[in-house]
Amino acid sequence: MGSADYLDIDGRLGFVETYGSGRPVLCVHTAGQHGFQYRYAARAIAERGFQAIVVDLPGHGRSEPAADSPVSDLSWYGDWCIRVLRELSVDRPYLLGCSIGGKIVLDIGTKVPDELSGMVSMAAYGQRGSKGRSARPWGLEDSGSPSNRERSFYGHAALVGRSCPPEVTQMIAEMHAREDWQITVPDQTAWGRQDIWDSLPKITCPTYLVVGEDDFGVPVARVKATAARIPGARVATLPGVGHYPMEELPDFADRFVRWIAELEER
Amino acid sequence: MSQGSGVSVDPIFLDGSDSYQPPLPGTVGSVLTAATRKLPASAGPVAELELFLALPPVPDARLVGLTWPGQASAKPLSSGAVLLPEATVTRRRFDSHGDGDVLIDQDVRLTDDGGDLVRQASASWCASRASVPAPDPATDEIASPAWGEALAVRLGSDPAFTSSVSTFDGSIGLASRSSAGLAVVEFRIYRGTIIETGRKSLDGATYAVEADALTWAELITGRHDDYVRFAARGLFTVRGSGFQYLRLTKTMRIMVWHARKMGQEARRG
Lengths: 266, 269
What we know:
Largest sheet of chain B: 6 strands, antiparallel
Structural class of chain A: alpha/beta
Number of strands of chain B: 11
Order of helices and strands of chain A: EEEHEHEHEHHHEHEHH
Number of strands of chain A: 8
Number of helices of chain A: 9
Number of domains of chain A: 1
Number of domains of chain B: 2
CATH architecture of chain A: 3-Layer(aba) Sandwich
Strand content of chain B: 25-35%
Order of helices and strands of chain B: EEHEEEEHHEEEEHHEHH
Shape of chain A: globular
Oligomer: heterodimer
Helix content of chain A: 25-40%
């Protein structure tokens, strides 16, 4: 069984789930989503000797929106995660994030590398997005963005790897279709804007970058270029996997444990 | 409990990849690859031309046309460059009686040893009817009126499609670019019913989804339904009302699904 709590951070409640009692791992979700994405992985990671701490970023899932919502700055989310870790008095955690979560843990790594045991950043890189996406205010208007639900449903389904069973692909797509566009669109803007290229060498904690070969939104070359700027970083490419390794891979927890073991051998 | 257990899977996620049958050699979507060739010291247009023509779709095919777009922006090929020719059939046109020669269009690409595309051309071949696999209306002329009419029959009997266009009054066009020009079929739709299918509706398409013939061939005959991936790469463009195109997102996915299914069923006999 896990436990859950609301943390008061700057007058807004943030939702945090915790599983297990071993070495702490902060788990950060993708754009528009929430801790649901780790519903299987968190328990499995906990069963392997870790304490999985799963957050819903402000405005996502069961967390209240940020006071200055919408947030379109991943560095802001990185600072919020650091606040969560300090509120919970977590000592030298590992970080695990995917997509914007992957970029957020990289951001945290540039800020407090000495406070971390290491990180696994999935489906993320350190450059701006391919289009250097600027704010798209029309995307926040229903009148300018028709069929958001269906576009999200089919668009995110296509990001799933080809080895993933169709029922899992559909579940991932359905959960994306339930998003609030006032949160998702700023998340996507933040994804495109983030540029921590010059700060990547500050990430001195052990780092693993993980990318699915079927993830057409995250070129493997960009991930490798990012790794090349992080001292000692490793890269794992996953055949048949797309944008959501923690949901697509039934043995994700075992792979996570192996990645951590490799980092600890460093 | 395993992830996704008990979920009733939307047919859209059953793209046929588990029972995929590739196109027969010489039919639309079939791919021929030659051994890598090293450009001779006298590398130039003639050497490139020989590579473009190295892969006739069927043994007795005669070249009747070659469109070799200007390569002004392409980097020059140096002698000794190692190139891999690959040719995909994009269209087959049988004469109305079905017993004359068959016109076969090919997209031919040359990639270097790093996998980068360095040259591309369209070749048209003429082959005897006896040397060519039987006609396949599901793939021979994608985006033609006849192909569209076959697709419309399927769409009209799918409640998911009719529901998705139940509030639409307009025309959806599908268009395929090739050296032969632009093949277009338009579906005139009113309140969930396709009321006409043809080359052009009276008022023109509300929007038309366009791609080159190679993209269509790969989408319709490939193992996976890659519409979203292709669109994300800019291989599909939309003319007309982008708003209506987005509004009918589900409709487009269903149309592609049926177009692919039509081809798969034809290949399975």
